[in-house]
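Entry for the shared binder. Reason: the reviewer on the internal report wants the predicted structure included alongside the sequence.
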Amino acid sequence: MAVDELSATFAALADPTRRSILERLAGGEEVTVNELAEPFPMTLQAVSKHLRVLERAGLIERGRAAQQRPSRLRGAPLKDAADWLETYRHFWQEGFTRLDERLRAGEGVAVTDGPQAIRPRRHGITITRVFDAPRESVWKEWTEAERFADWFGGPQSEVPLASVSMDVRPGGAWRCTMFAGPDRHEIHWHGEYQEVHEPERLVFTLSDEPGGDLYELVTVVFTDLGDGRTEMHFQQHGYMEPDQYDRTEQGWNGFFDRIASRLADG
């Protein structure tokens, strides 16, 4: 399989919505756009966008029946991707064998106050903060452009309100421009909302690479503590190295300090 074709396959499979669509088509039947869109809380246009990505990658083929354009799964690219992964089977099997041997020898274990636990490799960050404000107010900090522009970037950076665009719905895009630090380094942030469950849960992608296929996935869960306070559970996962996540965690904590200050001021 050509490298470009393999890249297109893995890029298409990187999105959970597109993987769900392929699972729906795995039965072998042709399925219309309307039928594919039913399980997803997003517009037909957003689903059609995902279908175009899958079609360009060769993972599906689409009919020409009026506006419905039924889709059918094509298995050849998936087989080629599976064959490529198969060549590396011995690496992960060897890795599992070494891990098992180390665990049996008592290595690679972190001792805590409770039972021993394996210390996993870090591929993201988790931050939990409690704000002295109702859940609806904390939700608005993430979903209203004027509020978001004020805290995103913390005290050291500026996000002009005119640069912020937020289409807060599944499949909707968001973007903003940040002038970071004293040298005002220009960063163009963008992404797409994956889940929007107001005011409980927000999931979106995050990237500063124009036209790139790699992105970070951010999940924010808001819990009403019942006493006028809100717990915010934040997670970011993706492709960065551990030291990059350390710096990123420091940055987000600065941002969240700004949210706390804003909410305290009312």
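Summary line for the report: The chain has three domains: 3-81, 88-118, 124-265.
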